Amino acid sequence: ALIASVIFFRQRAVIVILAALAGAFAGEIMAAKMRKRPVPLNDWSAAVTGILLALILPPATPFWAAFLGSFFGIVVAKHVFGGLGQNIFNPALAGRAFMMAAFPVMMTTWSQPFTLDAVTGATPLAAWKFGGELPSMYALFMGSIPGCLGETSALALILGGAYLFLKKVADWRAPAGMLIGTVILAGIFQIVDPANGSVMFHLLAGGFMLGMFFMVTDPVTTPMPKKGRFIFGLMVGILLMVIRKWAGLPEGVMYSILFMNAFVPIIDRLTRPKAFGRV
Predict the structure, then answer these.
(1) What confidence tens digit (pLDDT) does each residue in 67-101 have?
(2) pTM of the complete model beyond 0.85
(3) SS3 category, 268
(4) Secondary structure (3-state) at 69
(5) Which candidate, 151, 176, 128, places its Cα nearest to that of 253?
(6) For residue 249, which of 98, 122, 186, 230 sits 20 to 30 Å off, Cα-Cα?
């Protein structure tokens, strides 16, 4: 997905990625110094947050905004809660939510791929939500469409997700739950009114693939029990389609995951398996 973002959005992508990485490292260093702890740059968790945030930002995001959003995600969403392993909310998504609240126009301005000028265009979900010409399924799959840096190419995201599963870094249960929840609700909406878009459209458009492979698989901000991970993903998929259908914004991946992050302690408690030998 990182490589695809550079192919489609050229130097714009490079600037946003480097700025987000710089903000993440700066936030990690400052927070560690304030807490009088060793600077934990060697675990690369800050780099992961910076890259993930860059991949969910518009290509034309100014470097200072990408830096600020990444800095916020590390300092506020991660270290305020105690650092790595203690944060409740996904730091990359929290950083984007902060930017969405602070810079709404900037965060909803999109660039056409393969261009370095100011030409803008509606994302596929915006075209579906507010009326416009929808791209072909081939364009959605390959990624030659307006959108966030890393969310346009379903092919690149599938390859990256498959690698995580093959290396057993990511657990399949949360992505499976998110896929099932989205398919069920998108299918119902399509049956009720074909204008709601096809199931395949909702799987390929927007941030669904990126959220399914790289966000709900976060081991810190998702439930620990296997059953809990599936329930978490299922609810994310359902909320995603509810937001896309009835909310004012066309996309709901970020808000659905952050909303369910808050319920992880409850899901953990309800789905925790009984200790062996106990009634």
Answers:
(1) 999 999 999 999 999 888 889 999 999 999 999 99
(2) yes
(3) helix
(4) helix
(5) 151
(6) 230
